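F.,

This is the one I mentioned.
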């Protein structure tokens, strides 16, 4: 008996999934993932901070800062999306816990400390975005210059807001000596009154 002729199955072509642009170095991807999650920690922390202060103008200002952090998270997410970088589940959980702990602690550590530590944290965050910008530039990408520059500057504005709130405090010099941040010490070299434009901002955060 003749065997029925089975038509040959068409060979499926392997479709290679490609990135919209070239993938980033893993170190830079990790920086973006971390910044994305850290922005959530900051936003959570400010929720507790704004709830813990009594003054209405302070509440409004801290709520605005929280809003800025959510916006930063969106901006960072857009960059990650562009390069198909996934959100890190580990960072998301870790920073959510950190944010919630800071948020709760704002209700028990008095008025001064939440302002002090927020300012100190913002001071360090400023450089995250300037370093990220330099990293992108070093691999020939300038697409995100303005967005990263603006996020860095916004963090500087946050730092100055918190510093101005506690500038006159008698305990500030003690905290400054101990934690290296305050009236005379900062974790970045940006002066908002003498800002360099984006194209001349490479001298920021070189340390
Ligand atoms: Fe931020
Ligand atoms: Fe901030």
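My design for it:
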């Amino acid at each position: 008996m003749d065997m029925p002729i089975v038509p040959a199955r068409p060979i499926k072509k392997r479709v290679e999934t490609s990135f919209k642009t070239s993938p980033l170095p893993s170190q830079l991807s990790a920086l973006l993932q971390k910044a994305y999650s850290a922005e959530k920690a900051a936003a959570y922390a400010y929720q507790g901070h704004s709830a813990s202060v009594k003054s209405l103008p302070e509440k409004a200002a801290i709520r605005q800062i929280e809003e800025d952090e959510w916006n930063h998270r969106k901006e960072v997410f857009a960059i990650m999306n562009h390069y198909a970088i996934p959100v890190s589940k580990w960072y998301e959980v870790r920073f959510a816990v950190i944010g919630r702990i800071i948020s709760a602690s704002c209700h028990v550590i008095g008025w001064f400390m939440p302002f002090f530590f927020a300012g100190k944290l913002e001071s360090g965050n400023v450089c995250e975005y300037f370093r990220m910008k330099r990293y992108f530039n070093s691999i020939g990408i300038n697409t995100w210059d303005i967005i990263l520059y603006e996020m860095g500057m916004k963090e500087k504005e946050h730092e100055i807001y918190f510093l101005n709130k506690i500038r006159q405090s008698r305990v500030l010099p003690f905290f400054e000596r101990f934690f290296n941040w305050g009236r005379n010490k900062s974790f970045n070299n940006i002066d908002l009154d003498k800002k360099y434009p984006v194209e001349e901002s490479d001298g920021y955060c070189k340390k």
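The mean pLDDT is 90.

Talk soon.
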